[in-house]
UniProtKB/TrEMBL annotation:
Transmembrane segments: none annotated. It comes from Komagataeibacter oboediens. PANTHER family: BLL5188 PROTEIN, TIS1421-TRANSPOSASE PROTEIN A. This is IS5 family transposase. Residues 89-224 form the Transposase IS4-like domain. It holds the Pfam family DDE_Tnp_1. The lineage of its organism: Bacteria, Pseudomonadati, Pseudomonadota, Alphaproteobacteria, Acetobacterales.
Length: 228
């Protein structure tokens, strides 16, 4: 297997979700696997799309095809399929800031598209919100402008999962979220804010697992430097 390439087992898990698969009504795209590996190579190597090696073909075609897949929901479909294979014992939520590339700021938005770029103390930034399972794999994701408060994405992301225990830091200590968790019979593992009058007991045995999501963000930024 080439560096940054897909193993045969990885390819088997996603190939039936992709346009151009065998028996597809439009016909078979023989280079679909090569295209997927081109996308992985570009983001994992952290290179401009113009610098893709020649073996992947014309970089413009790769970029055009990726854009069509994103707009058509193909990438999201792959993520949801892979995220469905998860352990619901415990999950954790957090966010991380991503600096907007200098070339991404100030460009005219096409079709009024939301680019999820905002201004925070770090300048022009985006924020990745994620719920991660006990195995360290993302099961729900959202992208917002960098100044968006963490708590605002908790409820929408929580709608996509059903864990037995939900771990978060004290930025997520809010009565509406706690009430929703208790209503759904999900154990909240969230430290109380210092100004809370009646702080609750915290299961430190469960809370110490929160480092899993910190490691997830570290792995994400080191594996895909061009994307984050």
């Amino acid at each position: 297997m080439r560096r940054y390439g897909l193993s045969d087992s990885q390819w088997e898990r996603i190939k039936d979700l992709l346009p151009g698969r065998e028996d597809h009504v439009v016909g078979t795209a023989a280079d679909t696997r090569l295209f997927v590996e081109a996308v992985l190579y570009r983001y994992r190597a952290g290179i401009p799309r113009r610098d893709l090696p020649a073996r992947f073909g014309d970089w413009k075609n790769v970029h055009r095809r990726l854009r069509r897949w994103c707009e058509g929901g193909v990438i999201e479909r792959i993520f949801r399929q892979l995220a469905a294979d998860r352990d619901n014992d415990c999950m954790m939520i957090d966010s991380t800031i991503v600096r907007a590339h200098q070339h991404s700021a100030g460009a005219r938005k096409k079709g009024g598209a939301d680019q999820a770029i905002g201004r925070s103390r770090g300048g022009l930034t985006s924020k990745i919100h994620a719920i991660v399972g006990a195995a360290g794999k993302a099961v729900a994701l959202s992208l917002t402008p960098g100044q968006r408060a963490d708590i605002t994405e908790a409820a929408p992301l929580l709608d996509e999962v059903d864990p037995a225990a939900f771990i978060a830091d004290r930025a997520y200590d809010a009565d509406p979220l706690i009430e929703e968790l208790e209503e759904r019979q999900i154990t909240p593992v969230i430290p109380s804010r210092k100004n809370r009058r009646d702080p609750w007991k915290l299961s430190f045995r469960l809370y110490k697992n929160r480092n899993i999501i910190e490691r997830f963000f570290a792995r994400l930024k080191s594996t895909f430097p061009a994307a984050v």
